[in-house]
Amino acid sequence: MSIVERKERQRAERYELILATARELAEAEGWDAVTTRRLAGLIDYSQPVLYSHFKGKAEIMAAVATQGFEELAARLEAETENVAGDTLRNVCAAYLDFAGSRPVVYEAMFVLPTKIKFASEETPPALRAAFTAFVKALGPERQDAIFLAEVLWSALHGMVVLMQSERIPAAGAEDRLDILVRRFGGDD
């Protein structure tokens, strides 16, 4: 391995370490606890080293969000390929499962302010892929499939936020999901 390759690998490893540490700290104490000074201390690098990767906390959160979009897209796309069961329900359930199992990442993706653009030319490919999975699950031949997908995603997001903030009980999640799928699947 050349010196250049080794330095590139070390840089990539540092990048991933910064993101993993930021996620762990946010999971333990919330995103407010994530600061470049605190991260630098936790990973034993100076703040200038962090700034060589990210301009600040907002960029770190955006990078965590982007990784989250990649994971979410992979989960949703897998469900559109799954021939077992109702594709729409499987995609919606996968979305809710992702949000419930990765609340800190979900918060970075959808709740906290970032400069990630939705529904624009600048939308990251993974975010587009996640949205496309909803369109596919609904049936792209349906009239207004894009708008239906936006409304479906909005409803799922609302469910997530309300359950995570304990404004609606998590116990009814399956029943709510069934109602949502019936409405969007055209069965009601």
Summarize it.
This protein has 188 residues and is mostly helical.
Walk me through this protein's architecture.
The structure is a single chain. The chain is an all-alpha fold. It folds into two domains: 1-54, Orthogonal Bundle (Arc Repressor Mutant, subunit A); 62-185, Tetracycline Repressor, domain 2. Helices cover 73% and strands 0% of the residues. It has nine helices and no strands. The protein has helices at 3-29, 36-43, 47-53, 57-81, 87-101, 103-111, 125-138, 145-164, 173-185. It is globular, with a radius of gyration of 19 Å. The N and C termini lie far apart (61 Å). The model has no long low-confidence stretch (mean pLDDT 93).
Can you lay out the helices and strands and say which pair or pack?
Blueprint lengths: L2 H27 L6 H8 L3 H7 L3 H25 L5 H15 L1 H9 L13 H14 L6 H20 L8 H13 L3
Large-scale geometry: globular
Structural class, by secondary structure, is mainly alpha
Multimerization state: single chain
Question: What's the main sheet like?
Answer: none
Query: What level of helicity do the residues show?
Result: over 70%
The count of DSSP E runs of length 2 or more, i.e. the number of strands, is: 0
CATH superfamily grouping of the largest domain? Tetracycline Repressor, domain 2
Q: Which CATH architecture of the largest domain? A: Orthogonal Bundle
- Per CATH, the class of the largest domain reads Mainly Alpha
Identify low-pLDDT runs.
none
Strand content: under 5%
User: What is the mean predicted local confidence, pLDDT?
Assistant: 93
**What is the gyration radius calculated from CA atoms?**
19 Å
**Remind me, CATH topology of the largest domain?**
Tetracycline Repressor, domain 2
Number of helices: 9
Kindly report how far apart the N and C termini lie: 61 Å
- The tally of structural domains comes to 2
